[in-house]
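Troubleshooting entry. Yesterday's outputs looked truncated, so today I'm pasting the complete records for two proteins to confirm everything comes through intact. If either block looks cut off, that's the bug. Protein one:
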Amino acid sequence: MKRRSISAAALPAIGHPLDGGFYAGRVFFDGREHALIDAGREFQCDAQWWDRLGPRPSIKAAMSFEDGLMNTHAMAEAGSAIAQKVLRMVIRGTGCWHIPSIRQLEAMRSTLLQLDAWDSRHRSQAEQSFADTHGFWSSTANNCGSAWNLTMHPWCTPRTNWGKDIKTVRPVKTLLIKEATFIHQPYSDAPPALDLSGLASSVALAEVLERFVNEDTGRFYGRTDELIAALATLGSQA
C-alpha cells in the first residue's frame, strides 16, 4: 500500500481536478497530512458492504476511522466483493482507489457539499451530487457484520447498519502531502529567553549596581523602584 505524494503548493482549489478525481481537502491520519480525492458521481455504485452467505464477519483490520485504503484492503482480503471491485478500478487512467473511511466521508461532506456541483439539497441532478436515499458506505467496520455509513446532508451524523444492506459506495484516493521545511521556529506560548551575555562587560551597569549593593556584605540597600528606574535609564541609552 505504497502511497504517492504531492507538494502542498501543487494542491488545487476544492472541487478542481486532481490525479483522476476532484480535490476534496486535507485529512490527517497516521501522523501525516493527506490530500483527499473524490472519484465523482459517475463512478459511484450501489452495493452491499458484505454480500457473502454465512456468519457475519468481524474484520478487525478494517476498523480504522481514518485510513480508508487500509480498511478496503482488509475487506478485500476477507472476501468483500465491493472492496475487491473498488481496488481494481482504473478511473480516468489512474488507480489506487478505495472505499472512504468514515472520517474521509465526513471531510468530503464538510468541503465538497459547499459547492453547487456536489450539493444535493436543492440540485439533486448536479454534476457530482451526493444525492441518494440510503446513505454512503464507509470502509470502517463496526462489530460483527455492521459498518459505518453517512447520508451526505449537513445535519446527518454517522450511523451503523448491517453490511448486507445496499448503500452507495463512492471511490476515493489519498496522496501524502510532502512536509515543507520550516522557515521559522514553531510557535510557543513560552516567553522568549533573555540574552544576558553582554551584562558582565557593561561598565555602566556595574556603576549602577555599586550604588545599591554593598560589596562587603553582598546585601542590597536603597529602594527597589530607584534601582529599576536606574536600570531603565541604562536601557534607554543603549
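Protein two, checking that the full record survives here as well:
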Amino acid sequence: MRTSDAVLPTCSQVLTVAQMRAAEEALIAGGDTVDSLMQIAGGGAAEWVWRVAAGRPVTVLCGPGNNGGDGYVIAEALRRRGLAVTVVAPMEPKTGAAQRARAAYGGTLAEGGKGGVFVDCLFGSGLTRPLGAEFADLVRELARHHHYRVAIDLPSGVASDSGALLDEDLPHYGLTVALGAWKFAHWLMPAMERMGDRRLVAIGVDAVGGAATLLARPRFAAPPADAHKYTRGLVLVVGGGMAGASMLACEGALRAGAGAVRLSSTHPHPSVAPDVVLKDQPLAELLEEKRTNAVLVGPGLGLDDGAKERLASVLQADLPTVADADALTLLTPNLIERRSAALILTPHAGEMDRLATSFAIEAEGKVARAQALAGAARAVVVAKGPDTVIATPDGRVVLAPSPSSWLAVAGTGDVLAGAIASRLAAIHDPFDAACQAVWLHGEAARLAGPAFLASELAKAVSRAYAAAL
C-alpha cells in the first residue's frame, strides 16, 4: 500500500485520457483499489489545498464521479485538520468509490459557499462535452465568491486531450493539482492559461510507452580541450533582403554554442556583427562546403522568385536544415521529396495553417497537427507558441510551455531558429537539437526579464547555456 503523502512531481510524462485509464487499471491489477488510489490522490491534493488555504474556510464542489470522490477525500482530510469545510454536491455520487468517500465525509453539505478557497472537483479529465448552463453557472458563481480557486486534476469544462475550453467564461484558477500524471490540457492553450500554478500528485503510475513528455533541462559541457570552431559546429544562415531577421538568427546560433556562423545574403548588410562571416560567394558554392554542419533558411529570406530559388537550392543540397519563417510559407512537398538529411520545421500558428494546406493535413488540435506534419514532411516539427509542441516522424512528442509571455515580440522566433540550427550543427540529432534550443530560448526569456527586445533575448541565450552546464 502506498502512503497518501505522495505529492512530489516524480514523472514528466503527459498522458491522454485513455493512457491514464490504462495506467490506473494496471495499478489496480497490481493490487491497488479504486478506493486506495482515491485516498492517495485526494490526500495528496489536500496537502496543497491546506497550504494555500492558510487557515481560511474551504468550499469543495464535488461531482458525481471519481473526481467528486477525490473532493470528498480532500474535504474530510481538511476537516480533520481543523479547517472549516463545506461541500457543495449538486448531484449524488454515482460510482462506488465516490459513494464510499461521501459516506466517510463527516462535515457539512450546502448549496453554496463563499469567502476563502474554492476547490473545483466537479468533473475531471474524462469530460468531453460542455458542462451545461446549470453546472457552468454554479462553477462561475462559486469561483466569483471565493478569494482563491483550486482545480483538482483539471478545471471543470476543459477537454483533457486537447486543452480546448468546452464552456465559455470559465474561471481562472490560482492552482491546478494534477492527479496521477500530467494531462495534455495542463500544457496546452487555451486551457493552460486558466490553471495558474500546476502541481502533480503522484499515485505510483508507471512509465507509459509512447507517452508525451515535458521538456527537460539539457545537460551541456564545456568544449573539450582540443576543440576548434569547426568541431563545435559550422552554421550557414541563408537570408535575403531583411537584414535584421538574419542577424538575430546568427546571434542566436552563436550564443547557443556554434563555433562559427556564416551568412549568405542577397543584399548588403552594413552592420554585420564582427562574429558573423558575411559570404558573398554564390549560394551553390557555399552549400558545397563540406565543413558546414547545419543550414538555416528563412529568417529574412523574402517571398519573391529569388527567395524561392534560394530555398530550393538549400533543400536540394540535402544538408541538415532548419526551415523557418519565409521558408515555411514557400515550402511545398515536392521540394523535400528526395531529401534524406535531417530537417526541422518551426511554424507558428499561421505558418502551420499554410503547411497543413500544402501537405493536405486534416488533423485537428495542435499536437495532432504537429504529429501529422512531422510524418508527412519526414521532419522534426517545432510548433511554436505559448504552448510549443515538438513532434517527430516516429511519434515522439515533447510539450514546452513558455515561461514568459514577453516572448510575444518581433524577432524572437529568429533567435529560436538560430539556436536550433546551432544545436543541430553541434550534436547532429534533430530531435535533441530542437529540444535543447527550445529550452535555451525559454530560459533566456526568463533571464531577460520584462519588456526585452529580440536582440536582448539573443544575448541572454549565453546565460541560459551557462545555466545548463
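Both blocks look complete. Sanity check on protein two: The two ends are 40 Å apart (CA to CA).
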